[in-house]
Amino acid sequence: MKITVAGVNKEVADNLTVAQLVIDEKVETPEYVTVTINDEFVESGAFESTTLKDGDVVEFLYFMGGGQ
Amino acid sequence: MAFTNEQLERYSRHIILKEVGAKGQKKLLNAKVLIIGAGGLGSPVALYLAAAGVGTIGIADADDVDLSNLQRQVIHTTKDVGTPKVESAKKTMEEINPDVKVITYHTFVTSENILDLIKDYDFIIDGTDNFPAKFLINDACVMAKKPFSHAGIIRFQGQLMTYVPGKGPCYRCVFRNPPPKDAVPTCKQAGVIGAMGGVIGSLQAMEAIKYILGQGNLLTGYLLTYNALKMEFRKVKLPSNTDNCPICGKHPTITKLIDYEQAECDGVHL
Lengths: 68, 270
Hints:
The complex is a heterodimer of chains A (about 70) and B (about 270).
Chain A: E1 2-5, E2 8-11, H1 18-24, E3 34-37, E4 40-42, E5 57-61
Parallel strand pairs in A: 1-5
Antiparallel strand pairs in A: 1-2, 3-4, 3-5
Chain B: H1 5-10, H2 12-15, H3 21-30, E1 32-36, H4 42-52, E2 56-60, H5 85-96, E3 101-105, H6 114-118, E4 123-126, H7 131-144, E5 148-154, E6 157-163, H8 171-174, H9 187-190, H10 194-213, E7 222-227, E8 232-237
Helix pairs in contact in B: 4-5, 4-10
């Protein structure tokens, strides 16, 4: 199936979970990433139980604390 | 309030813009913006807001200028090393534009003082370097119904979003809680390219100016991310449903401000 991850179109396995996608995308410190699918937040405890479907648009939002 | 001849000349490039005009320039001169953090982000914000003629600029920072700051904190100079950042910033802003009244707060923001600090300002700039301060500014601005610009920078990356009460998600909608201390690399360990503060801080200044003028679209409901190495900007849409947010949602569970443990300048690789 086809999904969009951070603006990039990708072909991924059917029934891919968010937890697996986070691994496949090599997200650094995955326990602190915020994930949205089709403009909805995925609860941080629900990465394992959330399955992606064809056409989903996924974004990763990262903590960025610097400024000084 | 009539403009002096000097003001007409100083702000002529603003006044000629149809989105600004004399009316908009007066709005800027009457506006009050608080900048929290006089560092990498706060420096360009302070320089551009002072130059723009924002009439009252508050600046809060507890630190003194350090030599290692000067690679990015462009409001301070070598001879300012060892002096309070707020004093150095005030001096530079007043030299740029004597129209501007600069109010300094030589202090850290805490749950005790932040509501008092922000109460007289129209717009707040988060130019801080740590998650406890960023969450504190968010929560205080939500509680006090104040608009603010959030930003973060690390390595070759930066991002920002704008919160306006009732107009979209707050920072805590996106990031529920600060990461534990030392869970992510600090800026001191990770580094940051100096010009990143210039890019992202200038965008924060632009958001403040647009808010004051009431012109254009703000970064409400979006996170703008910038990756300098890829030379890529992305305007990422944020979910509009904020009902479950513990601070700005329908049933807030956070009803008082929290002082989280301080871990300076944290960030996660994008």
